[in-house]
Amino acid sequence: MTHGAHRSPLSLYTHTAQCASSRVIREYSTSFGIAAALLPGRTRTGIRSIYALVRVADEIVDGTAEEAGLGSQARRDALDALETEALAALHTGFSTNLIVHAFAMTGRAAGIEDALVEAFFRSMRRDLEPVHSLSEEQYRSYVHGSAEVVGLMCLRVFLQDHAVSEERRTQLESGAERLGAAFQKINFLRDLGEDAQLLGRSYFPGTVPGELGEARKAEILADIDADLTAARRAIAMLPRGPRRATALAAGLFEELASRLRRMSAAELHGRRVSVPRHVKARILLSAMAAASPGSAG
Fold this sequence. Notes:
Blueprint: H1 9-28, H2 30-37, H3 41-61, H4 64-67, H5 72-92, H6 98-110, H7 114-126, H8 136-158, H9 166-190, H10 192-199, H11 214-235, H12 240-261, H13 265-270, H14 277-290
């Protein structure tokens, strides 16, 4: 069988895997899809590959696998198998699962460590258990694994072709964690009703499904604002291509936070807020204008 005049079998297989990952982000996330489109080619491919693996894990724990008929233990087994496959592929450079293969090729090129993958899957595994009345430590641990380490994975890809000092890298890593945390906390608020009604979950410390008061909502939004402010300082230090894409993603989530702030706590339980297309277009133009060539990178 021929594989094309200029591609090796592995190159063709990897390209096919990357196309599969690209399809995942296109189908599941308009916001992240728009932001990823602003990235340079290889960086864009890497980010899409990370997103796709994260999305597949989410589908195991967030109801899709259960809808397909998988019981509790079967879902746990599926998640464990996905983690095992991802870690193995990071070391071997191959997987029969196209999404895992694309992620592994990205991880190997960008230096994504096993520890980041393991932390992510620990948080995903937490979703297979009842999620409510979490302690502050449990909440922070979940956010770290489900969001902050994903930010660190993306940063590895952003810096793949860029040499930075250890001091700058430390600042960028902190910013990546804070931005990932902000995104996750905004999603927790936006999905408050669906998480409670469909999955019986409530992620914020000390809360139970269906209960969130105005004072607690204000505290959560203040925490999100602090994360976004810290992240914005780090975004300004990124290389230009990743900077404008990350600024766009941050802008979209800042708009979501603004809309959540205008809703009452009671409304959050009954309606999932979104950003209209014309507003997304405005934020896109703003992000592109702000990413001037004279900034870092």
